[in-house]
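Ligand: NAP. Inputs:
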Amino acid sequence: MDDSTFFIIGANGQLGTALRQQYPRARFADRIELDIADPTSVQNFDWSGITTILNAAAYTNVDGAETADGRVASWQINAEAVANLAAICRQKDITLVHISSDYVFDGTIEGPHTEDEPFSPLSVYGQSKAAGDLLAATVPKHYILRTTWVIGEGKNFVGIMLGLAEKHIEPTVVADQIGRLTFTSELVRAIDHLLRSNAAYGTYNVTNDGPLVSWADIARRVFSVAGYTNLTVTDTTTAEYFAGKEGIAPRPLNSNMSLAKLHATGFQSRDWQDDLERYIAHYTAN
Ligand SMILES: NC(=O)c1ccc[n+]([C@@H]2O[C@H](COP(=O)([O-])OP(=O)(O)OC[C@H]3O[C@@H](n4cnc5c(N)ncnc54)[C@H](OP(=O)(O)O)[C@@H]3O)[C@@H](O)[C@H]2O)c1
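Predicted complex:
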């Protein structure tokens, strides 16, 4: 694959950073050069030579999206910008790789979410991401990757837990949301696999594999791998954790994504526990 024909959007986010490392010759632009929420900016941009847009940009502040300003920003970047990118991809026969979320579901089903489950988003963020999926799917050559609990370079749960451990703070963490971590390295591997193998266009769930766990379980694993075995993590429920707090987005409790469709393409997922060890080893070495 010629990565000089790739264009990365949201290049400074967790996933965007990992994509730039994987595809060093890919082009990318900052918001001044290309405002993807503005249809004119997207239409007037020079897309010559671009075969594939990797859209890692999103409004990811799920509680912020419940505010008046956040609701607008969330719809602008998670939906309107995707409409603008989808239009240019259709016009110029560009492949669109777009990233979606477990938050497009309410998480009330038993068992894993499959790619064809009907949308049931609970929050503004989830609703705007669901709209983005529908828009991305209007591009003939599209891959929509639905992921969960993303961990890469940037602010994320594992980094926050490591920061608490260093200060010897013993946190109370929700134990009734169930899922798996997804390292940006795993997302990048899946994107690369789908593109290289010319997998059928469409929607694919992509998370790390391994045991389904709660955030509290992950916090305990982080503490243990990082060597803070004397610190305790106390379980709570999502309802208790957010009780009395204003403007909190509802969260799906079941974030178990079926990986069967991805695996049927020949992709072998890595266990989140192995990637967590590598991540913490890298984090503590730097
Ligand atoms: N994080 C998670 O746990 C999670 C879970 C499920 C799905 N996802 C999805 O995974 C994808 C990647 O998430 P992530 O964690 O890598 O996100 P992230 O670290 O929050 O990065 C998002 C990036 O989008 C950029 N962006 C926002 N508005 C923009 C605009 N108008 N124009 C250009 N860039 C803009 C941000 O730029 P600034 O830094 O300048 O704001 C930021 O660099 C997203 O689609 C997200 O919805 C994430």
